[in-house]
Design goal:
Layout: H1 3-16, E1 25-28, E2 35-39, E3 45-50, H2 63-76, H3 91-104, E4 108-112, H4 115-129, E5 134-138, H5 143-151, E6 155-159, H6 164-173, E7 180-185, E8 187-188, E9 193-194, H7 197-207, E10 209-214, H8 229-232, E11 241-245, E12 255-259, H9 261-270, H10 272-275, H11 282-296, H12 299-318, E13 331-334, H13 338-352, E14 354-355, E15 358-359, E16 370-373, H14 381-397
Parallel strand pairs: 3-14, 5-6, 5-7, 7-10, 10-11
Antiparallel strand pairs: 1-2, 2-3, 4-12, 8-9, 11-12, 13-16, 15-16
């Protein structure tokens, strides 16, 4: 077999479909985010503004976070030196887990190297702890949740996205004595819609199911202390396992679950994705702990973030651009074609110095390709004006449809 030919065929297929992913080389500038330097393929450099990053609140350059990381690396060096079980548990890891448990009002928290690994490892391990477990998973759950559910070897049921009645039908059809778990998200990142947390918790109570919520796109940004949508809606006590990330609003790296002490102990003891992975570097854990603690006391940052998202959506809607608006901080502009989406992204970058990565299949279904903007408190009025003007001009240049303007 000609393996190189097979690789060429696979890559050509992506190019032909307009969804080959190109990574651009950027260098963030500390203290100057969202501005960065793009190194073009020819080696020349251009100043750009990042509009698609997940450092939602700019905490990756917060002085409190950086000071904590500097102190930790000066005290301990670079890596942790091992897995959590073998020399890789430090005071920094324990401190961060305590901050996270407190954040979510749970007895304990458990750190992972990413929220993807936290979802995958936890969901694939739960059937070992509850033999015969049936997992009910929202159809639009993140790939990490899908992978964890797929790999666990247990029974699974997929309910239509946010369809509580369909979920009820599935629960009612199964053995009442079987252990059950409902897995869903608080904010679905591609459309920015909210999961029906309270209604799902009501069903869980009725059918004796555990609840597992992914708050990755909400922690740090919603609720009085930034614990997420469940905190905002005063529902955290009704959720058995909460998954979150330290790599988005908190601006650092890593993922976690927060749950009862026994649940965390069991996952810690049985999940290969936890047992056999080197722990986060102490400096990363220190920076994340400082970020979590800071945002617990900074509601004004969350308020500014929400205001920025509302303003950007309002201005893009006024141009007749097709925005999905479910009231969250996510700003998706629907294009509906992978070639046009990439062309828009390329022109924004090359002609206007605006970086917004195209979102294509399989991240979103075919025909729903989009640009996804993530405004932050550190995007100033000049950056927003430039983005709005560029989108208006390019939408006309590409002869894309606009919504009917009223009023």
């Amino acid at each position: 077999m000609d393996y190189t030919e097979k690789l060429d065929t696979a890559l050509e297929r992506l190019h032909d479909e307009g969804r080959y992913r190109t990574f651009i080389d950027i260098e963030r500038s500390n203290g100057n985010f969202p501005n960065a330097t793009w190194t073009r393929p020819d080696g020349t450099k251009q100043q750009i503004t990042v509009w698609c990053g997940n450092d939602y609140l700019g905490m990756g350059q917060n002085p409190v976070v950086l000071a904590a990381m500097h102190d930790a690396i000066n005290a301990t060096g670079a890596g942790s030196g091992g897995t959590r079980n073998i020399s890789g548990t430090t005071v920094y890891h324990k401190r961060l887990e305590a901050e996270l448990a407190d954040l979510h009002g749970k007895q304990a928290a458990l750190l992972f190297t990413s929220a993807y690994i936290a979802n995958d490892a936890t969901l694939s391990t739960l059937p070992k702890l509850f033999p015969g477990l049936i997992i009910y998973s929202d159809a639009l759950n993140h790939a990490s949740m899908i992978e964890g559910v797929r790999r666990n070897g247990g029974a699974k049921r997929i309910f239509r996205h946010n369809d509580v009645e369909h979920l009820r039908e599935l629960l009612a059809a199964d053995d009442p004595a079987a252990p059950k778990l409902i897995a869903f998200e608080s904010i679905y990142s591609m459309d920015g819609d909210f999961g029906p947390i309270e209604a799902i918790c009501d069903l869980a109570d009725e059918f004796g199911a555990l609840t597992y919520i992914d708050e990755v796109h909400a922690v740090g940004m919603y609720g009085p202390r930034g614990a997420g949508v469940a905190e905002r809606d005063r529902l955290m006590h009704r959720l058995d396992i909460i998954n979150g990330t330290l790599a988005k609003a908190y601006g650092v790296m890593g993922g976690y679950i927060a749950a009862s002490a026994k649940m965390c102990d069991a996952i810690r003891s049985y999940a290969p994705g936890f047992i056999f992975t080197t722990s986060l570097p102490p400096a990363i854990a220190a920076g994340a702990a400082a970020s979590v603690a800071f945002l617990k006391r900074a509601p004004e940052v969350r308020e500014k973030h929400q205001a920025q998202a509302k303003v950007l959506k309002m201005r893009l809607k006024a141009l007749g651009l097709p925005i999905i608006d479910h009231g969250s901080h996510i700003v998706p502009v629907m294009v509906g074609d992978p070639v046009h989406t990439k062309a828009l992204s390329d022109m924004l970058l090359a002609e206007y110095g605006i970086y917004a990565q195209p979102i294509n299949y399989p991240t979103v279904p075919r025909g729903t390709e989009r640009l996804r903007f993530t405004p932050s408190p550190v995007h100033g009025p000049d950056e927003m004006n430039k983005l709005v003007r560029a989108m208006d001009a390019l939408w006309s240049h590409c002869a894309l449809n606009r919504a009917e303007l009223t009023g």
